[in-house]
TrEMBL record:
Keywords: Cytoplasmic vesicle, Phosphoprotein, Signal. It comes from Calcarius ornatus. This is Acrosin-binding protein. Acrosomal protein that maintains proacrosin (pro-ACR) as an enzymatically inactive zymogen in the acrosome. Involved also in the acrosome formation. Its main location: cytoplasm. It holds the Pfam family PBP_sp32. Coiled coil: none annotated. The keyword Transmembrane does not apply.
């Protein structure tokens, strides 16, 4: 264990900045979704990429007790963006 107040190791910095890059990219995708909507071709390409080439049709089931299902993938993605749970899966 590192001493409190000491800088991260090279490996720890790599993991730290890798997570930040991914989070920033997720936020950017959310901003695109919020600005242009789910019918935008770039947003649809991102959705396809996230789902191995196919945007799932609804309803989308989740393990969230407060929201067990979503009407479609767009609604699910908007929920993730609003709640800032970028890596939440169904």
């Amino acid at each position: 264990a590192q001493e409190p107040g000491t800088p991260l190791s090279d490996q720890e910095y790599h993991k730290f900045f890798q997570f930040l890059r991914i989070t920033i990219q997720a936020r950017t995708a959310c901003q695109l979704r919020e600005l242009y909507g789910c019918k935008n071709s770039l947003v649809q390409r991102l959705d396809e990429y996230e789902n191995h080439g196919v945007i799932p049709s609804g309803p989308i089931c989740s393990e969230l007790p407060e929201n067990p299902s979503f009407h479609n993938f767009c609604t699910f993605s908007l929920y993730r963006c609003i709640m800032k749970q970028y890596f939440l899966k169904v």
